[in-house]
Amino acid sequence: MKPPLVRLRAWLGRRTSTQLAAGIAVMAAVALIGSLMVTSAAVRMDQREKAALAALDDYSTMVEKLGLEASLTAADITAADAAYLSNWLSAFQSGPTRDAGTIEETCSTGRGGAGVRFIRAPIGKPAGLAALETIRGERAPRLGDGVFVMQLEHGVLCPSRAVEVVVVRRSVGALDIAVGRVVDRSGAAWGWAVAAVAGAGGLLLAFGLTAATFARRRLTSAVADVSRALDLASVGDFSVRAPETAVAPELTELTGRVNLTLDRLEELLSWLRDSADQLAHDFRTPLARASARLDRLKEASTMPEARALAEEARADLTRLTRAMNEAMALRDGEAWVFETVRLDWLAASAAELYQPLAEEREVVIRVEAAPVSVLGVSSLLQRAVANLVDNAVKFSPEGGVVTLSVRLDGGKPVLSVADQGPGFDPDLLDDPARAILSAAEEGRESHGMGLAFVRAILKRHGAAMTIDDAGPGAVVTARFSR
């Protein structure tokens, strides 16, 4: 099992900068609010302790003021004593707590300190606030023996305000006495402090989330600009570069390197195009001269064998010229205009184009195509499909069948061309590149240069080409990624 620090680093490594920024903002706000809650609880406990000390002091004073009445037993107390205690409590209620505030002040302002009393004798009616006896309250042993914290709801002490009271409930002789003090609120200063801290926490959280959102959008915009430059470069357009500054400073080094790479690629492609143009120019003139000379040789020769050889050499030159033109088409940047292309239409068009040749060889062309579209260069894909069909028809025996299939496999476009010809060496089926080279070495033009051309086009369109044994024959399959 990995150590916690290693797991934490791994987890952080999977988080984005935006997520980390938002997480830090949330944790900071939570920590701030948590510290406020802890401080508030500490202040509340301090206020309860003050109220408890005042209530205990009131209780001692009350017992002292009772004098002999505090020592009366249940058998000694008379109705006159009970009436006296009730009147005495009413008088005492407004005496010892005058300096701390009256109940009226508490109810109107919410400030604490006001005293509440209750006394019950074995006979007669109890006097004072009956809720001090009936409300159970929460025992608070930290504040003293027989001390309770009570919540007095609206209408119990104040008509329109709920208050918290710390009450000392004890028995003195035959008397049950409850003496309490209203717990002071946090006060205006504390209220402003709480509001300020809570506001700061809210602002911190809002600022953090806003900063994270802004950073995410900025990074997304910068990455989108880089992706756009790379996408255009992938289709031969090097006119756009990634912005190096003012969008996302943290990506400045990356965008700079991307632009340097694009500059270098544009330079290399320009050199390759110039070289290809030069090679094409150097080859076209000799090829044209050789073709013309072979035509004159064929016309001048009276020997059938010589005329046949000239015709074969002329066909070889034609194939060489076509291969060169196809290579030049792949090089040409202007040909890389991507659009929506229907593969089923291309398959049907190629079948129609090669139908006369197939009838000559008594080959049947079948098309099994569902409506499937891909994004690509229509002219290049048309050449690729035509090359596959041409290859299949030429290598199919008389009476053979060539099958063009267009379908979706797992949601991805698939095009395949199957023939019943000699196929490929089984040892080479797992390696299309070796199969192509092997066929080329054997002099099979379509299975050689033709498949190399098809493979290059498919690779440029994000498709993978595979060659499988059709038993008999071969099946060439193009699987597109989009």
Q: Determine the mean pLDDT.
A: 76
| Order of strands across the main sheet | 2-1-6-5-4-3
Point out poorly predicted stretches.
Answer: 95-99, 436-449
Q: In percent, how helical is the residue content?
A: 55-70%
What is the distance, rounded to the nearest whole angstrom, between the alpha carbons of the first and last residues?
Answer: 41 Å
**Overall outline:** rod-shaped
- Proportion in β-strands: 15-25%
Q: Using only CA atoms, what is the Rg?
A: 49 Å
Secondary-structure class: alpha+beta
The number of helical elements comes to 13
Succession of helices and strands: HHHHEEHEEEEHHHEHHEEHEEHHEE
Largest sheet: 6 strands, antiparallel
* Quantity of strands, as a count: 13
Report on this model:
This protein is of the alpha+beta class. The chain is 56% helix and 16% strand. The protein has 13 helices and 13 strands. The chain has helices at residues 4-13, 17-66, 79-93, 103-109, 131-134, 187-234, 252-300, 304-331, 343-353, 355-360, 378-395, 432-441, 445-460; strands at residues 115-120, 127-128, 138-139, 147-152, 163-172, 175-182, 339-342, 364-369, 373-376, 401-409, 412-418, 463-469, 474-480. It has a 6-stranded antiparallel sheet with strand order 2-1-6-5-4-3. A hairpin with a 6-residue loop joins strand 1 and strand 2 (127-128). Helix 7 runs antiparallel to helix 8 (304-331) and helix 9 crosses helix 11 (378-395). The longest helix is centred in the first third of the chain and has 50 residues, at 17-66. The chain is rod-shaped. The two termini are 41 Å apart. Residues 95-99 and 436-449 have low confidence and may be disordered.
